[in-house]
UniProtKB/TrEMBL annotation:
GO cellular component, one term: cytoplasm
SMART domains: PKS_KR
Keywords: Oxidoreductase
Domain of life: Bacteria
Gene label: phbB
Organism: Duganella vulcania
InterPro entries in the record: Acetoacetyl-CoA_reductase, KR_dom, NAD(P)-bd_dom_sf, Sc_DH/Rdtase_CS, SDR, SDR_fam
Name of the protein in question: Acetoacetyl-CoA reductase
Length: 241
């Protein structure tokens, strides 16, 4: 039976590349989106991957969404990739409570919401793969991103703790911390700022979404069963922890 993979934020950017890679590797894939319906519909038409719409910051929506995926695909989720996230960048002395709370809920709270919905069946089955997509800025911090950096750093602690809880049940939990990847989010950065960013990357270029996707594909496979609680940096050498 095909294993079922669920990718949040799975219809654009890094998430879309991960969903494609897993589908090409023989997994049944469900891609979750929230905001851009046109992009999600185009993604589904192009790939044939099932799409689902819900807000990963909403606990009840996550539980209902996972139940729908389980019903539609005929089994429980074997692989979860927590990729969905947002930014609300501004310096802390200008940041509103809403800007803080929205990012924490979407980028970190979603990890609890989604993992809580899938972890029980994974434990019963004796198998599971969970990968969280963090960020280089969660490892090193970034100006104007106290909310985002805090959320992405929180994912790393979440990963280590859940890995310890889950190892005896055949479930691995790992994190990937990409650097600057050529996505719509990075494309929105002004050219002069982007040039300065690229100049600081030792390999001299932005990463490609597919490069992150290949790493995730390895981590969710049987060959990675002895790897858990780890964070993998994919940042072109920009930050070495």
């Amino acid at each position: 039976m095909q294993r079922i993979a669920l990718v949040t934020g799975g219809t654009r950017g890094i998430g879309a590349a991960i969903a494609r890679r897993l589908a090409d590797s023989g997994y049944q894939v469900a891609a979750v989106y929230h905001g851009n319906e046109a992009a999600a519909t185009a993604f589904q038409s192009e790939t044939g991957i099932r799409i689902y719409r819900w807000d990963v910051a909403d606990y009840e929506a996550c539980a209902a969404g996972v139940a729908a995926v389980t019903r539609d695909l005929g089994g429980t989720v074997d692989i979860l990739v927590n990729n969905a996230g947002i930014t609300r960048d501004t310096m802390l002395h200008k940041m509103s409570p809403q800007q803080w709370n929205e990012v924490i809920a979407s980028d970190l709270g979603s990890c609890f919401n989604m993992c809580r919905a899938v972890i029980g069946p994974m434990r019963e089955k004796g198998f599971g793969r969970i990968v969280g997509i963090s960020s280089v800025n969660g490892q090193r911090g970034q100006l104007g991103q106290t909310n985002y950096a805090a959320a992405k750093a929180g994912m790393l602690g979440f990963t280590k703790a859940l890995a310890l809880e889950s190892a005896a049940k055949g479930i691995t939990v790992n994190a990937v911390a990409p650097g600057y990847i050529a996505t719509d989010m990075v494309a929105a950065v002004p050219d002069e700022v982007l040039k300065k960013i690229v100049a600081q990357i030792p390999v001299g270029r932005l990463g490609q979404p597919e490069e992150v996707a290949r790493l995730v594909r390895f981590l969710v496979g049987d060959e990675a069963g002895y790897i858990t609680g780890a964070t993998f940096s994919a940042n072109g050498g920009q930050y070495m922890a």
